[in-house]
Amino acid sequence: MKCVGKNVLRAEGEDKVTGRAKYIDDLSFPGMIYGHTVRSSVARGRILSVARDPAFDWGGFTLVDHRAIPPGGRNIVAMIVEDQPFLAVDEVRHREEPILLIAHADPERLAEAVAHIEVHYAPEPAVLDLEHATTVLKELTISKGDLEQGFAQADRVVEGSYFTGAQEQLYIEPNGVIAVPGVDGKSITVYGSMQCPYYVQRALRLLLGLDETQVRVVQTTTGGGFGGKEEYPSILAGHAALLACAAGRPVKMVYDRLEDLVATTKRHPARIRHRTGVQRDGTLVAMEIEVDLDGGAYVTLSPVVLSRASIHATGPYRAPHVRVRGRVLQTNTPPTGAFRGFGAPQSQFGIELHMDRIAEELGIDPVALRQKNLYASGDVTATGQRLDGSVSAHEVLERALQRHVKKKRPKKKDGLLRGTGVATFFHGSGFTGGGEVKLASRAGIELTPRNVRLLVGSTEIGQGTRTMHAQIVADTLAIPYEWVETADPDTARVPDSGPTVASRTCMVVGRILQRAALDLQQALGPYRTPDEFRRRSRKLLAKRPALQFIAQYDRPGDIRWDDATYQGDAYGAYAWGCNIADVEVDPITYQARCTRLTAVIDIGKAIHPLLACGQIEGGSLQAVGWALYEEVVMRDGRMANGQLTNYIIPTTLDTPEILVELVENPYPHGPFGAKGVGECPVDGPAAAILNAIRQATGVRLNAIPATPEKIMQAMDAR
Amino acid sequence: MKSPVRQFELLRPRTLREALTMLHNESGLVPLAGGTDLLVLMNAGTLPRGTHRFLDLWGLDELRSIRRTLIGRRPQLVFGALTTFTDCISSRTVLRDLPILAQAAREVGGPQIQNRGTLGGNIGNASPAADSLPVLRAADTELVLSSVAGERRIPLADYFTGYRTSVRRSDELITAIEVLVPPGKQSFRKVGTRAAQAISKVVLAAIGKRIALGSVAPTVVRATSVERYLAAGGSEFETARELLTDDIHPIDDIRSTAAYRLRVAQNLLGQLPTFQR
Amino acid sequence: MKITLTLNRKRRTVDVSPLERLLDTLRGALGLTGTKEGCGEGECGACTVLLDGKPVNSCLVPTAQCSGAAITTIEGLAPRGKLHKLQRAFLECGGAQCGICTPGMILAASALPDRPTREQIRTGLAGNLCRCTGYEKIYDAVGVALGTKK
Q1: A644 touching C, CB under 8 A?
Q2: What is the pLDDT of residue C139?
Q3: Which residue of A has its CA nearest to C123?
Q4: One-letter-per-residue 3-state SS of B134-176
């Protein structure tokens, strides 16, 4: 009867394979009208005027600018710093910045109307890329030991710079919401495609000056997020809400692909610099690292992205003397944001390329260099965290080597250049440092005479939240999986379980649910069979329709963190991973293709092995895309290739064979030992692929995407 | 933003005759076949200004056929303009006489596009990146342009006048593509942005010593200088490689660079059997 | 204009504007929202339906061109209340994650020959983008449903 570790059917799977699942664009409300955003066409400047063509018939249109924000509300997108407006007032800081909103009952008339609106600007000089950026939005330093002493002990100092480009999340369902105004004129409900209903609720409360009883946010079936629906939906929901309030009617806003590509967040472009002191035998003694991220025009979530990027910048390697300096720089481009991995893929791309460079300079095998320096239990990280228990850095590498070599194929004589590359990595599960304590997430269980219903704010965005949470609760209560259902994420029904981000939904929220289940069990008293559970439940309920057991996050054991010094236990637990990539480079076309990718990842415990493998395969392929194909081409501060035909993600024919092996080294404070899984798979493949290209061609690329054009240039420069 | 659909008109002839009459009588009609190019523009709101009346060709079954005849000892394939890429892939005639056309067709978009995209449309759309054009250009291809006044045959070589422009009059329709297949080994290589659903960066098709390239000039081109050199008995790749720079004029765009396109075109040239001895 | 077509084995007549896309007619007048729009460029394949048995991108097909044609959408793949073998396999093998590409993916797969090789599966699904799965579980599902040996 136990279902944890078994591949039960996905909770909402049947709705998805039959087309019955309702995504936001599948929904309609009586009287609904359609909204659209008028955006800036300059990267930076003052708005001189917004003019509407008086000859055009504006009847039936609702138009809204920043002045429509009600008294008591604020024109600020609630995030970390109060710098970003929902609608520009008198200046714009990036292309596609929202200025004006317009709605009409006939969506076809919106295009006509937009053509009759003219915004005049006084353009100002704009900074369009990281290379030219100087304004620092956030800076932090992580220090361990004494860097000078470290370099003094080194036989060699190896330096390198590494660059990663922006990446689009490219959920196949674009961003979209529907805002429905309340009949009282003082409340609003927003339905939408999103990861974090409570983020959206908080943003709407601030924008409209309403309390939590007046703002209801409901997540609809969401066609992929990957971080792209973490913070951005707050803005879109705000826009739809403003239009809905002004029109007094439900307003649907669903971006088309172009708008979604050019206007919404991307992965932060990064520049990583390494200066490493190393001894002759390969022992790392000093690591000086600079992490610079392009935050775009507003702060948004960049400080926390920087934090994760910086903490992961050393890779899973021990060194006695470390200094990481991280910065977010401002550019006049659309704000970058959350994307699966949240900074860690960028900084670990840097260290993993750098490790191969060190190995080469020392004449040591790259695997041996890693084996010499990988964390083991008892080691202390750059933030001073002592790692013990569930440290699998060596094990994942060993198992990847075994797994990958076993499938080796004979060399073909086809003129292709072949190489194999490796990357080892780790990924902290949950919010950084004191983040989880601050979130104080809650989740719970509602006992009904019929079944057990999960009340959880975590969203299903494809990763299997509902299924996996139900498995955890079913096994904790020793009842059948089928007896557990999940309430829709609706701020009026479920508590705030924290955002669905940061590989925390299983390890952190799953644990809270497990504790709620234990509370329920305590209330029931001992039972031996599911039937007895049911009898006791009914007795406990007596005549009540339902009983709720809500638990709150409880800091496990002795986790300590100091935000001021960046010292302490950065994460409760880490997932550990290793990728080995086979690459073919065609010397005729300079195209690199990843043909086989092995991913061995320790996730503590696979609650649902099939879903966990699916997470790893999907995340791995996103990283393959980032490494080889996905390039956000910017022209004058705007994405110039904003079509799926020109922003290239892998098709079936570009996809390597992906071999996944799960390692289960349990974390005592995760449900059934589980750690995070969602983000870790993105950390390694890009570096493994570039290390493989180095082996195949002899050229060292230090930037991704490794497009054929870049490979050609590098091969020419040899 | 998507173009408002309401503004568009669609004329739906039942026969070719009727279609040609409509083209003759009305101005500004845009022929519409499988829609794989035009509807993309419509959805993106980027149709050329003034484009709002379309002539639906999809129902004209008389334009759906692949016929084979012999002219002397050379096979001639006559394609109706509505021959889809899927038709090309599954035609035994094409596989036998012009296998590189099937190969090119297999690399157009994905199955969904191959089921709707047509040879006539690929030519009519006049993109220099059209995947079938280098194959047709490497062969001896004539286009049959029909109008109420009758038919005229234009060699594909003379059809395009520049980037996305051609000699087709607005009252004319491409109704057939006549491809006389020269003797010689055929080869085809598309270098695109990815392995499927890709717009080409460079395409090279060759039949014997006839070499055509796509995506490296405003229209599909023949490597005339190289061919002349080969015809005169030349066989040095280094010379041919240099000569190719006279034949193509690639540009930088969001998909690639001029330097890459030139180099890859040269590399593909070097792969031809002529230089692989 | 009035267009009569066969939708999921039933004759239907709809009034459409001349260049209306099949995608919009299906989702709008015909009320079938299982067909999804991911790009409007014929790139992602989320809007794939079968037109006379062949997969097409319904975002690039004018409904007017479907007069007299047979259309199959995800809603019509299996009899009501039943799952098609591909739907069952996608469910069991983890072929659907976020689910937005799934209807189109399943319809594209339904046009594959019986007992397809992995290469045939990859080629047959090359017009359908998935951002969640890395495609592995989709190949597994199609293989299980259509009888490919591993």
Answers
A1: yes
A2: 98
A3: A653
A4: HHHHHCEEEEEEEECCEEEEEEHHHHEEECCEECCCCCCEEEE
The angle subtended at Cα A272 by Cα A266 and Cα A275, nearest 5°, is: 170
Looking at domain C2-77, which of 1.20.1250.10, 2.30.42.10, 3.10.20.30, 2.30.30.30 is its CATH number? 3.10.20.30
Identify the three-state secondary structure at position A48.
Answer: strand
CB neighbour list of residue C82: distance below 8 Å, 6 or more residues apart: none
Is the ipTM higher than 0.85? The answer is: yes
Query: In CATH, which of 3.40.50.920, 3.40.720.10, 3.30.1360.170, 1.10.150.120 is domain C80-145?
Result: 1.10.150.120
Q: What is the pLDDT of residues B45-64, one digit of tens each?
A: 999 999 999 999 999 999 99
In the stretch 41-70 of chain C, residues with CB closer than 8 A to chain B read: 41-43, 45, 48, 51, 54-57, 59-62, 64-65, 67
pLDDT confidence bin for A153, thresholds 50/70/90 = very high
Cβ atoms of residues A270 and A283 within 8 Å: no
**Whether the domain at C2-77 and the domain at C80-145 fall into the same CATH topology:** no
CA A709 from centroid of its chain's CA atoms:
29
**Closest listed residue to residue C93, CA positions, set C130, C150, C144:** C144
Alpha-carbon distances of B16 from A401, A552, B25, B148, C63, rounded to whole Å = 65, 73, 14, 10, 21
pTM greater than 0.90 (yes/no): yes
The whole-number pLDDT of residue C148 equals: 78
Q: In chain C, where are the structural domains located? A: 2-77, 80-145
Of C20, C56, C60, the CB nearest to B5: C20
CB contact under 8 A, B35 and C54: no
Q: Tokens standing for A73?
A: 């509300």
Categorize the per-residue pLDDT at A410 as very low, low, confident or very high, splitting at 50, 70 and 90: low
CA nearest to C97 within chain A: A462
Domains of chain A: 13-22+435-552 (3.30.365.10), 31-125+182-253 (3.90.1170.50), 270-432+566-717 (3.30.365.10)
- B135 in Cβ contact with B212 (< 8 Å): yes
The Cα of B158 is separated from the nearest Cα of chain A by a number of Å equal to 30
Q: Spell out which chain B residues touch chain C, with contact meaning CB-CB distance below 8 angstroms.
A: 2, 5-6, 8-10, 12, 32, 34-36, 39-40, 42-44, 54, 56, 58-59, 86, 106, 109-113, 115-116, 195-197
pLDDT (average), residues B25-31: 96
Interchain pair B255, A112: CB under 8 A: no
| Per-residue confidence band for A715, with pLDDT thresholds at 50, 70 and 90 | very high
- The answer to whether the CB atoms of B56 and C65 lie below 8 A apart is yes
| pLDDT value of residue B277 | 67
- Closest Cα of chain C to B194: distance in Å? 11
DSSP states of A232-293 as a string? HHHHHHHHHHHHHHHHTS-EEEE--HHHHHHHS--BPPEEEEEEEEE-TTS-EEEEEEEEEE
Size of interface A-B (CB pairs under 8 A): 76
- Note whether C39 contacts A: Cβ–Cβ < 8 A: yes
C44 lies within 8 A of chain A by CB: yes
Give the closest of B9, B43, B195 to C18, CB-based. B9
pLDDT in tens, A622-662: 999 999 999 999 999 999 999 999 999 999 999 999 999 99
Which residue in C has a C-alpha nearest to residue A14's C-alpha?
Answer: C91
Contacts of A114 in chain B (CB under 8 A): 1
C-beta atoms of C126 and A170 within 8 A = no
**Nearest CB to C40; choose among B34, B43, B111:** B43
CA dihedral of residues A591, C101, A483, A477 (deg, nearest 10): 20
Give Cα A343 distance to the centre of its chain.
9
